[in-house]
Every structure is written in structure tokens, then in C-alpha cells.
Amino acid sequence: MTTQTIAKPVPAIEVAGVTKDYAVSGMEPTRALDEVSLDIQPGEFVSLIGPSGCGKTTLLRIIDGLEPTTSGQILIDGTVTAAPGPERAMVFQSFALLPWRTVRENIEFGLSVRGVAKGERGEIVDRYVSMIGLNGFEDRYPDQLSGGMQQRVGLARALAVNPQILLMDEPFGALDAQTRHLLQLDLERIWQDGKKSVVFVTHDMDEAVFLSDRIVIMSPRPGRIQEIIEVDLPRPRSDDSRRDPRFLELSAYVWEQLKSMIVRDGAQG
Ligand SMILES: Nc1ncnc2c1ncn2[C@@H]1O[C@H](COP(=O)(O)OP(=O)(O)OP(=O)(O)O)[C@@H](O)[C@H]1O
Fold this sequence. Notes:
By secondary structure, the protein is of the alpha/beta class. It is built from seven helices and ten strands. It folds into two domains: about 10-85 and about 165-245 and about 255-269, P-loop containing nucleotide triphosphate hydrolases (Rossmann fold); about 95-160, no CATH class. About 35% of the residues lie in helices and about 20% in strands.
């Protein structure tokens, strides 16, 4: 008889026992995260959701290498990593575009920093401008664009450097509901095309259910993993997904979990 060992896939991101304390002068340090462990597989879309201040942004910044851990570590493709790297890109709620640069120059910026040749940069920018539907707006400046368009540029800028991992911090939080829905559809399509690993911070239950393979619910500060929910809705998702009874059931379930934590936390405070 032969025995076969099936190799366990190496996670794209491994959060291994991460605790984070912030020093606060003259006071006890603030514990933002407490022993958080989580594996994210290549091509997986994972959302982080939880009460305000539970450490979602902190966890994202630690994964990106922008913030050190107090204890525990981050492994990217199985290697301990404590600094930003070309395989990760971040998309921010505030868009974080350079106001003195045009759409084209904003998207091109990360490519020039990474040493991509000028001729090649032009082609890549054109591809991502089309992907996010901003043809004709390449020479506009950020303040000449709507919020939704600015976030499309933020997304294109992150995608243009072709990261394996996309870290998104409430990217659609500043947008109106209709624009948000459209960008969720865009992101679903882009994710289907490229199958990047995505960690997506949101406060919006429907957004988390619509986009995710798994939803990580975090507890109030200090942030711990309260529960992980598998989203078993078929892909690709479309506007019809939002009317699927399973969508409504999952969204209601996430809300129940969040509500009970917020009420409990408020009652203690
Ligand atoms: N630089 C810092 N110095 C001190 N405390 C900080 C710092 N950054 C964050 N914190 C604290 O750490 C905790 C977690 O903050 P974080 O921004 O990660 O939470 P969050 O879940 O992203 O919040 P929100 O949902 O409101 O955006 C909060 O109590 C916050 O006040």
C-alpha cells in the first residue's frame, strides 16, 4: 500500500498570533489586536468587519508592513515579512491620489517607482484606464473627478503594479450608495479576471457578503477573531446575487453578530 501525503497549500498571507499595542504617552498602552491568527489563501477574497476601533485598519497596515507587530508575525507566501513589498498594494478610503498629477500620472507613479520602463508604463496605464472605464479622463486632475472616479483611479493605481495581494481599507466608504454598488460590481469583475488575494475592510454587511469568500468578524477592542463566515453564494456575483435569499440570510446573520457585540459593548461602557 502506498501512502500519499497531500501538501498543504502555502497561504498567500498568514497572520500568526499577532498582538499590537500602541504606546500612548502618560497612559497604559492601547491594545488594538490580541493574538490574531488567520490564513488567507491565494486568490481568496476575505473581508474584515467589526465594531469601530476593533483594529481592522491596524491589521491591514501590519499585513502591508507599514506597522510593526508587538508580538506575532506576518508571513507572505510562507516567508516572514515585516516591511512593504511589491507583491502587496493598498487602496485607501481617502483615495490618496497625488493632486498635482493627472489620472495617467497617478496610475503611472507606482510603475516608475518600481523601475518599469517608460514605453511599457504607457501600455500598462492604458490597459488599466480601460479596465476601470476612465477612457477620456486620462489628463484630468483628481479634483476634476467625482469621488467614484477618484476611487477608480486609486484602484487602477494599485492594480497597475500587478500585486498578488490587494489590501483595501474601506475603499468605497466615502461614496454614495449607487456608486458603491457599481464599484463593487467592477471589483468583482476585476477579481474574477486576476484572482488576487484580497483583504477588504468594510463596515457594510451587504458589501462584505457580495464580495467575499469569507467574512472575518472581529470583536470590540482589543480586536480578536470572533467568527469566520463562509460565503457560499455562487460566483460570478451580479446584481441578481443581492436578491438571492442566501445573500439576505447571510447579511442578516452578520448584522445580528455585529449588533449583539455593539449592544454588549455599549452596555459595558
Ligand atoms: N497610532 C495610534 N496610536 C495610538 N492608538 C492608536 C493608533 N492607531 C490606532 N489606535 C487605536 O487602536 C485601536 C484600533 O484602531 P483601528 O484604526 O485599527 O480600528 P478600526 O477597526 O480600523 O476602526 P474604524 O472601524 O473606526 O476605522 C483604536 O482604539 C485606535 O484608537
